[in-house]
Amino acid sequence: MWGLQRETSSMYKRTSSRDYSPMLDVEDSSGVLENEVNSELETTNPSWKCSLPHVLVATISSFLFGYHLGVVNEPLESISSDLGFSGDTLAEGLVVSVCLGGAFIGSLFSGGVADGLGRRRAFQLCALPMIFGAFVSGVSNSLAVMLLGRFLVGTGMGLGPPVAALYVTEVSPAFVRGTYGSFIQIATCLGLMAALFIGIPVHNIPGWWRVCFWLSMIPAAVLALGMFLCAESPQWLFKQGKIAEAEAEFERLLGGSHVKTAMSELHKLDLDRTDEPDVVSISELLYGRHSRAIWYKCCFLFLFYRFQKCRSTIGSGQHLCWGFKPLGIRNRNGVDG
């Protein structure tokens, strides 16, 4: 009987060794292979194509900023003539610069709106005054209405670009974040160029300056509607406690294989910020422990900016003198160049 038990036991052992060990080896090897594939996917860079459409829609706000800065440069003479303030340099200056006053007001609320309502809602809010203000400027028949429209546009100009810089940083993969960040400046320059090109027919077509304002309503509407299709900032969703939604947005922006890594980075940053205050008062910036460094940097940047302006002014004057030399025009001291 003991021999029978030993024989049965040995048969069971041989059977388990022969039948089950290959299955266990296959499962172990497949698990190791899966872990290697996942680790390889996590170490590779995510596709830049997923986040590019979201970045391009966000940079429309910077395009509109540049457009409205330059939209009145070419048609200003026609505007002043049609609205009855031709030759009034103060009124012309107000038409050009009042939008910057509105931009200052809008920029004061950009951070609070972006943190309170989200990045997408902030973009849509900046598009609304740009649409309404451009329409008012286009239909204006007096200086006061024109200034009102320009001021409304300015509030959107101040609200949008700061949110664009924040949004592009938060939705871009790390390896193309600098490249995508440069799109904001490129969009601003393209907006200035577009305003100049669109204003070319203003001297040949009566009332064309109204069309210049109305055309800006198209990209503003694209911005407002496009944000319905764009991803919300995962960082903002994480800060609001919406973890599942943040993971879903990371999957849209980076791909499913990079969600775990992105979320772990957010958790790490959140732990690092536990000892730091979320809100810094203005008095802390002006009189706190880092105030001296801030003042030094501000003074340096101001002096550097003024130095660059002086260089450009002197250089422009020299080039003008050299350009007028063939015409026999001399400078104040009677010396060429």
From TrEMBL:
Localization of this protein: Membrane
PROSITE patterns: MFS (PS50850), SUGAR_TRANSPORT_1 (PS00216)
Pfam families: Sugar_tr
Domain Major facilitator superfamily (MFS) profile: 54-337
UniProt-listed InterPro entries: GLUT, MFS_dom, MFS_sugar_transport-like, MFS_trans_sf, Sugar/inositol_transpt, Sugar_transporter_CS
Keywords from the UniProt entry: Membrane, Sugar transport, Transmembrane, Transmembrane helix, Transport
Membrane topology (UniProt): Multi-pass membrane protein
Transmembrane regions listed in the UniProt entry: 52-70, 90-110, 122-141, 147-168, 180-202, 208-230
Protein name stated in the entry: Probable plastidic glucose transporter 2 isoform X2
